[in-house]
Each structure stands twice: as C-alpha cells, then as structure tokens.
C-alpha cells in the first residue's frame, strides 16, 4: 500500500509517518522499484498500537523504548510487559482522577438543575 492510502487508512499524515520512520518508530519500511514506500498490514497493526499508546497518554520516548524492545524479539518480552504494566498503572490513576473531576462537575450541574445556585 502506498503512503497516501496508508496515511488515509491509519489517520496519520504523510509527514507524521516520515517522522516516525526517521526516529525509528516505523522500521524496515519496504520500497518499490521507484523508491516509494510500500506499507504492509503488519505496519498497519503496529501503527494502530502506537496510536493507542499515544491516545492513552504514553510519552513518545516510552513508545520508542517499547519499539526498541520489540525489535529485540522474545528476549525482551518481560521488559515490554513491565513497560506496559507501568503505563497501565499510570493510566488507571489518570482515569480515577478524571472520574473525580466528572463527579464534581455532575454535582455542580445538579445544583443548577435544582435551582440551588444563583
């Protein structure tokens, strides 16, 4: 799949895809005889996971650490698991914090609905 189609499929700009390749987040991208990038379904699955990590607030530097560990293969499984578990713990804390904020907003909205705020 060419860059335009891949970009549309994964929802990232061509600029972002080139940047990810430059910093080593996207590796071993194949090229056709004209030198244009050709993306695979494997690349799609990887980028979707990267996007999920970003969407959950994992810093790019940690995603790069994960990518480096991933390149090492099965010897790095425990390290990858530990990195993801730490991220999960951080995410759980952020979710709890957001739920607390949501509850406070709901309380305030209820005050307005019940005419108790002037």
UniProtKB/TrEMBL annotation:
GO terms for molecular function: DNA binding; DNA-binding transcription factor activity. Residues 88-115 form a coiled coil. The gene is adhR_1. This is HTH-type transcriptional regulator AdhR. Residues 1-41 form the Mononegavirus-type SAM-dependent 2'-O-MTase domain. It comes from the Bacteria. Keywords: Coiled coil, DNA-binding. Residues 1-69 form the HTH merR-type domain. Pfam families: MerR_1. It comes from Vibrio palustris. Transmembrane segments: none annotated. InterPro entries: DNA-bd_dom_put_sf (IPR009061), MerR-type_HTH_dom (IPR000551), MerR_fam (IPR047057), Mononega_L_MeTrfase (IPR025786).
């Amino acid at each position: 799949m060419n860059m335009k189609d891949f970009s549309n499929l994964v929802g990232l700009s061509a600029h972002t895809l080139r940047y990810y390749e430059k910093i080593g987040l996207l590796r071993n991208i194949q090229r056709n005889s004209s030198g244009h990038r050709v993306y695979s379904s494997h690349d799609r699955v990887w980028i979707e996971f990267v996007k999920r990590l970003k969407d959950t607030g994992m810093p790019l530097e940690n995603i790069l650490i994960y990518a480096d560990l991933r390149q090492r293969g099965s010897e790095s499984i425990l390290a990858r698991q530990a990195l993801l578990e730490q991220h999960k713990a951080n995410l759980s804390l952020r979710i709890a914090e957001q739920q607390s904020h949501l509850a406070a907003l709901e309380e305030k909205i209820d005050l307005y609905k019940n005419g108790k705020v002037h």
